[in-house]
Write a structure and sequence with these properties.
By secondary structure, the chain is an alpha+beta fold. It has 17 helices and 10 strands. 32% of the residues are buried.
Length: 416
C-alpha cells in the first residue's frame, strides 16, 4: 500500500478541515486530500453551512433516535396487545396449561399482572352503571335438584351442582371481561384488599352492572337456592368477582376460615347460602378451588366449568393456592350471598337486597335503576354494621379467622 493511499484512507475517516475561515486549512490542501473521493463536492458536503462540525455524526444520531423511537412505539404496542390478549384469551380459553408471555413476565410486580392495576388506576374508573351488550342464552326450564343432593347439603353444609349454569358460562365470561377492562369506582375500595389476597376484586357487581343483575334474575341459580334453603323467596345480598386469590401475608396456607363476616348485619347466618361460580375447571389436585372441613375431615370437589358450589357461610373452608401463588391462567370466580325466607323477610326485604325469586319487585328494580340504593352512609351502616364492627369483620375475612355468630349481631337484627 503506497503512502498516498494511506494518506487518502486516513483522511477519509479523520475530522475534515474546512476551507479558509471554517477549519483553518486551505481549500487547496483539502482538495488534494480528497481528490480521489470526489474533490470539492465532498468538501462541500462535510463543511457547508455547518462550520466545521461533523454533520454525518449528527445525521447518524438522528437516525438512531428515530429508530429508538420506532422500537419504543413497537414495544408499547406489543405490551398493550399482550395485556388485551391475556385478558381475553385467559378468561375465555379452556382450562389447561398455558404459557405466560415475555411481556407479562417482564412486568410482574409484587406477583401482580399489570392489567390488574386498572382497579387502582383513577384513569380507568367509571361511576356510571355499566350496560355491556351481551346476549343471554335461551330460556331454560326450571331445574330440579335430586333429593339426595338436598340431603347432602343439609348434612354436610356444602354440595356441588354439576352443570348448573353450563349455558350461562359464555355470557358470564364476556361480562367479567368487560368488568375487568372497565372497573367501577368501587373497585378501588375493594382493590385495596387485593394487596393482601387478590389480584382483582370487586364487590356489589349487580349494583353497577346491569348484566350481572340480569344473570341473577334470569339464571336458574335462584331457583336452585330456593330448593336447598327450602324457602319461598330468595334475595341477593351481595355478589363479588375474585381473580387469582393469594394467601394473605402472615397467614398459614393450611388455615381454614368461614364467611360469617361477609354477610349483612341484618341477615341470619342460617338463612344465607354462599354461591361459588368458577369460570374455569379446577386444576390438578383441585388447585384454584376450595377445600372444606366436613365432619372433621377435609373434602375437595372436582369442579368443572359450568358447575356451582353451594355452601353455608359457617362451614370452614380454604382456597387451594398454586405453588408460589402464580397463576398460568386467570382464576375468575363469582361469589354471592343469597338469602332465603319462608314468610316475611323482615329487615332483609329492602331494595338494596333485591328479590330475585320467584319474581322481581318492580319497586325495587326502579329504586336500583334510579340510583336510590345506599343513598347515605347511615343507610349503609344500618344494613352492614357500624364502621368499627365492619372493619373487624373484614379483617376476619382477610386474615382467615373463623368467626362465630355474635350476640351483638343478633341484637342488631332484633332492633331493626
Amino acid at each position: 500500500m503506497t503512502h498516498d493511499s494511506l494518506r487518502i484512507r486516513r483522511s477519509r475517516w479523520s475530522r475534515p478541515h474546512c476551507p479558509d475561515g471554517a477549519g483553518g486549512k486551505s481549500s487547496k490542501s483539502m482538495s488534494s486530500d480528497f481528490s480521489e473521493e470526489g474533490g470539492e463536492a465532498e468538501i462541500s458536503a462535510f463543511c457547508g453551512k455547518n462550520g466545521g462540525r461533523r454533520p454525518w455524526l449528527r445525521q447518524r444520531s438522528e437516525r438512531q433516535e428515530a429508530e429508538e423511537r420506532r422500537q419504543r412505539r413497537q414495544w408499547r404496542a406489543q405490551r398493550r396487545a399482550a395485556k388485551g390478549a391475556s385478558t381475553a384469551s385467559k378468561i375465555s380459553s379452556p382450562s389447561g396449561p398455558s404459557e405466560t408471555s415475555d411481556a407479562e413476565r417482564r412486568f410482574l410486580f409484587l406477583g401482580r399482572q399489570p392489567r390488574f392495576w386498572r382497579g387502582l388506576d383513577v384513569r380507568s374508573w367509571t361511576t356510571e352503571v355499566q350496560r355491556p351488550h351481551v346476549e343471554q342464552p335461551p330460556p331454560q326450564d326450571p331445574s330440579l335438584i335430586p333429593d339426595a343432593k338436598v340431603r347432602e347439603f343439609q348434612e354436610n353444609q356444602v354440595v356441588l351442582l354439576r352443570g348448573a349454569i353450563t349455558d350461562w358460562v359464555p355470557y358470564l365470561k364476556s361480562v367479567v371481561q368487560h368488568q375487568m377492562e372497565h372497573p367501577q369506582v368501587s373497585a378501588f375500595v375493594t382493590g385495596l384488599r387485593s394487596f393482601f389476597s387478590m389480584d382483582y376484586v370487586q364487590a356489589g357487581l349487580f349494583l353497577t352492572n346491569d348484566r350481572f343483575f340480569d344473570f341473577w334474575t334470569s339464571s336458574p341459580l335462584a331457583g336452585l337456592a330456593k330448593q336447598l334453603l327450602q324457602c319461598e323467596e330468595v334475595r341477593l345480598i351481595v355478589d363479588q368477582l375474585n381473580v387469582n386469590p393469594h394467601c394473605p401475608p402472615f397467614t398459614d396456607v393450611e388455615k381454614f376460615h368461614t364467611d360469617v363476616g361477609v354477610i349483612s348485619a341484618v341477615a341470619r347466618e342460617e338463612d344465607v347460602l354462599r354461591c361459588w361460580i368458577p369460570l374455569e375447571s379446577g386444576r390438578q389436585e383441585g388447585i384454584g378451588t376450595l377445600e372444606f372441613e366436613v365432619h372433621g375431615e377435609r373434602k375437595r370437589f372436582d369442579v368443572k366449568l359450568g358447575d356451582v358450589l353451594m355452601f353455608t357461610p359457617t362451614i370452614p373452608h380454604r382456597v387451594l393456592f398454586p405453588a408460589n401463588s402464580q397463576y398460568d391462567e386467570d382464576r375468575c370466580v363469582i361469589i354471592a350471598s343469597l338469602h332465603g325466607s319462608t314468610a316475611d323477610a323482615g329487615p332483609v326485604a329492602v331494595p338494596e337486597f333485591p328479590r330475585i325469586f320467584p319474581t322481581t319487585d318492580e319497586a325495587e328494580v326502579a329504586a336500583r335503576r334510579e340510583g336510590r340504593l345506599y343513598d347515605s352512609a347511615e343507610r349503609y351502616f344500618q344494613l352492614w354494621g357500624r364502621p368499627f364492627a365492619l372493619a373487624k369483620e373484614w379483617l376476619q375475612f382477610i386474615t382467615y379467622e373463623q368467626k362465630k355468630p355474635s350476640e351483638s349481631k343478633k341484637k342488631r337484627r332484633e332492633t331493626i
